Amino acid sequence: MNLGFKTKGLRNPKHYAYRAWLLFSLVSFLLLFALTGAIEFDNIFAWSVGLLYVVYDTWLLSYVAWKTRLLGQTTTTTTTTTTTRNSTQLVTYNQDSKKQKPSLSLGVLVAVYNESNEIIPTLKHLLAQDHTAKKIIIVNDGSVDDTVHKINKLYTFYSENKEHRQTLFQSKLHPHLYLFNKKNSGKADSLNQAIKYIDCDIVVTVDADTLLAPNALKEIKRSFENNNNLVASCGILTPRTSGNKFSRIIGALQYFEYLRAFLSRAAWSQSNALLLVSGAFSAYKKQALTKVGGYDTNSLVEDYELIHRMHKYACEHALNWQINVIEKALATTDAPADVFTFIQQRKRWFAGFLITQFKYRHMIGMTKYKNVGRFMLPIKTVDTLQPIFGLFALYLLIDFTITDVDIASHVLIIILVKLVIDLCFHLWSLSKYHDWLGESVTHSRWWQALFCCLLDPFFFQPLRHISALIGWTMIFRKNARWETIRIAPNNYNSKK
To answer: Which of 30, 108, 304, 405 is 20 to 30 A removed from 321 (C-alpha atoms)?
Structure first.
């Protein structure tokens, strides 16, 4: 359902994706060839699948470290440098510039489904922003709990427009706050329907459990005003969990995962090849959003799929659209606090990733799609099988430890070297990340980095890989779908 969005500009001919299939076949062959090493070799090459996994992962870390080595060394007066090879800014404004900047209006959409325990703090943070949004719309996607009752009791909504009497209501206390009631149809369709009520230049989407820092919207607005080519961006998200000691461990592991993920996004945004802006806190130029047709209502990862479509549209229409990360726009969001919830979330993410990768397979290796086609999508093709490499590597390590101590000892030496590399990267990335945000690192974070680095390859990575494997099975069984999951232990439902 695109609600009348003009999508005829998006070309969809029969594409020949032989480059994608060739690359996928090559990676699959490497996997099978590496597995035969466990049978054919009686030395370190018996663990070839692990060697390939370690080399690939180390290369990715090295790339991110190189591309982000200068983060935190610039000031807020840095201007954007545009070249043919690097057209995306990391610092998006210049306070000293005397050039008149365009004034853009900003609106916020908050999709809500059974979020009565979380929506009030989210709204309070939005209403307390340094920059007041022109319009904030709570999009109630047919909640069956007391969500509507709670927000109506606190903000008192009404409607003077008979046409919208059953859908759009305005708050008596905050004239720029609205409630949009609709039947349940999913997050993507809810956002699509609400976009037509946002008469603003910039559309910001915020999840119902995401709390924005006081200056977050101001930084979003400033970034778009200082870069006319910017069409999509995201702020920096920090996960939060609650519960027992184990929940805090899961939370710490996700903290460093998010940290590395946003550094990676900063790295890829320099090549204008960023493929994900988190839907929990993202911003789009409305004109660009409507041109590509809004959100895909059939996607499991609507925020991820949308950016693929934006890159595709820009390349096919010779537009200098840019997608980046705004490091001064900070927010926190709920994250899974137990293993079951984590797997539920990540299996959908990975299944959605696979479906999106297949949908845009024709772009893989195509120079017309610039760095996304030349580099990012080929890397993502390798990532489709990376979890399988990782799980086989772990299985063979356990098997060698039991059956062949000599091979296991050599493998453990490689793992030790890899742990040292990972630890250096963990500590470096922790420092770099906080320099980037202009924050200091607490002593407890340094100890957490050491602990999480040691725990990550033996617990957190396998957990992610198992979730990805389940995502693969969902694709083969054709039962990939949205599922409501419980993020926090206080019995509220949240679709993440």
So the answer is: 108
Q: Where are the beta strands (DSSP E) in 335-394?
A: none
Q: How far apart are CA 202 and CA 233, in angstroms?
A: 11
pTM, entire model: 0.88
pLDDT by residue (tens digit) across 216-226?
Answer: 999 999 999 99
Give the span between the Cα atoms of 356 and 296, in whole angstroms: 11
**What are the backbone dihedrals phi and psi of residue 83, each rounded to the nearest 5 degrees, phi first?**
-130, 175
Strands of 168-171's sheet, edge to edge?
157-158, 168-171, 177-182, 135-141, 106-112, 202-206, 281-285, 230-240, 322-334, 210-212
* Full set of structural domains in the chain with CATH: 106-335 (3.90.550.10)
Dihedral sign computed on CA atoms, order 449, 281, 223, 374: positive
pLDDT, tens digit, for every residue of 276-291? 999 999 999 999 999 9
Q: What contacts 335, CB < 8 A, 6 or more positions away?
A: 239, 240, 241, 250, 251, 254, 487
Please give the Cα distance from 51 to 33 (Å, whole number): 12
pLDDT recorded at residue 495: 42
